[in-house]
Amino acid sequence: MRKNQAKSSNNIFPIKVDKLKKQMESRFENNPDLVFTIYEHQKKKIAVFYIGYLVEPEMVHNYLLKPLLTSDKTWANPDILNDIPLSTGKTKEKLQDILQNILIGEVFIYVEGEPAAVSFILSKKEKRNLTQAETESLVQGPKVAFTESIAINMNIVRWNIHSTDLVLEKIMIGERAPREVRLIYLKSIANETDVNTMRQRLKDLEIDQLEDSSVLMQYIEDSSQTIFPQFYSSELPDRFAYTVTRGRIGVLVENSPTAILAPSTFFSFFESTEDLYMRWNAGTFLRYLRFIAIIISVLLTPLYVAATTFHYEIIPTQELITIGESRAIVPFPPIFEALLLEFIIELLREAGARLPTKIGQTIGIVGGIVIGTAAVQAGITSNFLIILVALSALASFTTPNYMMGTAIRIIRFPMIILAGTLGMIGMMFGVCFLIIHLLKLSSLGRPYLSPVYPFRWEDLNKTLYRLPNSRQNKRFASYRPKDLIRYSKRKASKRKDIDE
Amino acid sequence: MDINVKVKPYLKIQAFYLFFIISSIQLGVGIMGLPRLVFLEAYQDAWISILIALLGILLVVFVMLRILTSYDNADILGIQIDLFGKWLGKIMGTVYIVYFAVTLFSVFITYIEVVKIFIFPELSNFVMGLLLVSLIVYCLLGGLKAIVGTCFIFFFLALWVLFLLIHPAVLLDFTHFQPVFQASFPELLSGARVTAYTFLGFEILFLIYPFIQNKKKVKKPVYFGVTFTALIVLITTVISIGFFSTDQLKNREWVVLNLFKIQSLPFIERFDYIVVAEWMMVVLPNMFLLMWAITYSMKRLYRVPQKITLYATAGLLLIACIFTSDHFLIQKIINTSAQYGFWLVFVYPLLLLPMVWIKKRRGKQKGAGRHSS
What we know:
The structure holds 2 protein chains of 2 kinds.
Chain A: H1 2-8, H2 17-27, E1 34-41, E2 44-51, H3 57-70, H4 77-83, E3 90-92, H5 95-102, E4 106-111, E5 117-121, H6 150-160, E6 166-173, E7 179-186, H7 192-203, H8 213-220, E8 232-234, H9 237-245, E9 249-253, E10 259-262, H10 274-277, H11 280-309, H12 317-327, H13 334-354, H14 357-377, H15 383-396, H16 402-440, E11 442-443, E12 446-447, H17 460-463, H18 489-492
Antiparallel strand pairs in A: 1-2, 2-4, 3-5, 4-5, 6-7, 7-9, 8-10, 9-10, 11-12
Helix pairs in contact in A: 6-9, 11-15, 11-16, 13-14, 13-15, 13-16
Chain B: H1 17-26, H2 30-42, H3 46-69, H4 76-118, H5 125-140, H6 143-159, H7 166-170, H8 185-194, H9 196-199, H10 204-208, H11 219-243, H12 246-251, H13 255-259, H14 271-302, H15 306-323, H16 327-370
Helix pairs in contact in B: 1-6, 1-11, 1-14, 2-3, 2-8, 2-11, 3-8, 3-11, 3-16, 4-5, 4-14, 4-16, 5-14, 5-15, 6-14, 14-15
């Protein structure tokens, strides 16, 4: 393989057409899909070769072969580039180039004796249509999601950001099966250090093949030990555009419907673009709802376990009676009871995710109603705990980012174990550990917990709460964008006195 | 060893964090039992003692800042070597390290004891010690920035505990404070002196100063931090005296924690359990900073890598805490730390400043011939 590559990077033209055919065929041994036709036109041999199912046959016929063979010119490379009514013509001299490009659907023409072959892009790509986002759905706002085709994705991005500042750097990743990756940022806003770091990380990547953008994310993240995602992965073009225009970096990967957004803060995983589309006060409310939801999700079941195992005194007497009654017939200690229920909920979620939608719903009903009710009646769990577990599962699904939601659901298990063994102290240990852990993380070299630590007052209105647009005139200062001001504040808010 | 410290720019911290650093290292285990101790000395005039203590601390902080600003970017270890020469300077630096270690240990075991008294009477020291030590090691590995971050975040996460004091504050009996000005001046002073252990910690300024990015803004956060601590101590003392009767106050070891017992909500009856657990967030930054001070000083003085000191100290802490569960032994350690700290933190800087002045003047006279600056 290596030897061949070294050989094929040299210029092989001019070459006899028959010899070229042999060479090409030897490369595509056992692949019957290479179409290699030799035409004789004006006493010159012309070879046209491509992979059958990667090109549009009608286009090849109408726009390439028809003009090529019906005209009575003697063809040479400049003529081909000039007279064929297609705009994507390019000359290629190296065998390696040809092999690479023939695989993405280019059609090559070689006129015997010429110093290079000419290629046209006539690729046909099977792709699905644009659909609604599935993992991150919005009630209000644009619904369309990225697809697997990077060309379509770039098209959508361009339609979202009409700016010549927008840079879409092309980087090929993967040595055996290269895949196109685009580094996207706004030249005049994005922080240069961040862009360089990202570019460096992408270019330094030496892997044989890249599966998906989420895999790429794991390769280039700051810390691979943590459970928290450090880059935001989104399938929403509006989120992508929102993030890039605020001076951050986006990465698109071919054949992947999710884009990577970097750098990201811990808090950005809990903000949805919908917060922007709502009015600021409603948006703030929703954001706080989500923050409270994480706290509930991580701490509610452990609190129950800690209280019922060690600290009965915390629970008021009235409630204690209720809880005691519901726990009276349960034979297990609270920690086991809680772990069991959490496990069942996780099972339901996983089963629902693997099954087709229609069956998934059925599973939800079976799980929720049948197992839940039966478990209480059979005396395996108390119904009080079922409420808490369901509540915390519900809360964990409010996180807009699926990866972060998963992380939070997983954190709950060690928390329950800590609470069941060491009570409140164990829980506190868990919380302290989590906070210290988050403090030590970074995303693309930027602190994960900014703007809370390192503290920046002016950025809080973009993470913890929202303000009316007249006050949101700056970009996220913690990431040091080149241009901090989005619009002049004076124009945005002219204050009037009463009765003017 | 260099007198001035060169700190890499990405390790520096903003000056306003000093407020959180200082108030979180000061507020720790000491405050939990302080009102009783002051009350035993100065009775109902305990609050005056605390105000006197605050004035003393402000003076000491002022002196400390004067000492620090007379150098470019030095910490106490460098200054001592500049003043006393290499050997004596190193010995004084070691005195500081020992002091930090004793204080760290006293905080460590006091919190373990409180947890045992309030929540788990039969919890083994080892388990509790292991929890705390693992957090200390984990955070310390993140460096000073992570430590300052925990100070900052834990400060806000622990602040809500103050709201629990509203209920006892409403029930204050002001007759407990009457008659005012009964305590004699020596009594007030000795009352102020027992606050020493609680107020200890601001000496961290001596070590952390070179890490501050904008040195011109150092003063405000430091003074505010110290005042904030004093204010909290004052509030808790006033509430304790007003809330408990004399006998109750005299017989309760951890008065402040007892205050939280009265507060209850429809869904939580006893807050003291939660507060004692929550107190971990108050105590941890304390221990982080003290541990950092030990490791950093060891590196400065003896070039021992911080990681080695960290693991060694953590191991020693863990072993030592297994054997110290006797209440009177713990009290003895606290008293040692308080005594030691009183002389080292409150008195020593006052002696240091004239020496710095003399040294500077001599240096100027010597250097005047050669150097114009």
